Amino acid sequence: MRSLTPVEAAVAFALGGSVLAVAIPEFVRGLHASRLAEPVDGLRRIAASAVSVAAAGLPEPAFPPSAPLTPPDVPRGVRADDPPGAWDQPTWRALTFGFDHAHAFSFSFESTRSPSLAHFRATAHGDLDGDGVVSTFEIEGEADAAGARILPGMYVDREVE
Predict the structure, then answer these.
(1) Tens digit of pLDDT for each residue in 47-96?
(2) What is residue 25's predicted lDDT score, i.e. its pLDDT?
(3) Residue 10 and residue 19: Cα distance in Å, rounded?
(4) CB 105 within 8 A of CB 122
(5) With contact defined as beta carbons under 8 Å apart, do 120 and 91 qualify?
(6) Which of 7, 118, 123, 151 is placed for a possible disulfide with 140 were both Cys, Cβ 3.0 to 4.6 Å?
(7) How far is CA 126 from the centre of its chain?
(8) What is the pTM of this model?
């Protein structure tokens, strides 16, 4: 068996380094994206359900009542299972929202109503790296006599915290 010449070894080393230079950042991006899918998808599910509930109440649209942060303690650096009944609060049932598997974020739902406008804000809090600093994701919607809608955009603070 013949050994590699110095030139062949240098070419192999350069090719391996090039592959790693492309693969590692892409892997890290994919890892961050998968960790951020939970709050984004969860808030979109909550918002879609809230708009459906409000639209069903036309011409007097209203969102379900507010729901506290669930689970009440934001998981720190881990995906956690919820205690039994954590998502049995009436608002979460009305929004058909909850988890039956371990997750890394806590969610809350706040709704208000004035004579002419109903409004909601759904929030997700997470501490993905376990350092006690929380990331926040929020989505909002409103409803009036013309209909119910999700407001454009999603507020994000410290997304990879």
Answers:
(1) 999 999 998 877 778 899 999 999 999 989 888 899 899 999 999 999 99
(2) 63
(3) 14
(4) no
(5) no
(6) 151
(7) 9
(8) 0.78
**Token pair 């350069």 in the structure block, residue:** 14
Count Cα atoms within 13 angstroms, Cβ side, for 50.
32
Domain ranges of the chain: 6-157
Tokens of 23: 């693969």
Find out whether 41 and 97 touch, Cβ atoms under 8 Å.
Answer: no
- Please give the Cα distance from 75 to 125 (Å, whole number): 9
Instruction: Give the chain's end-to-end CA distance (angstroms, integer).
Output: 51
For the chain, give the number of residues: 161
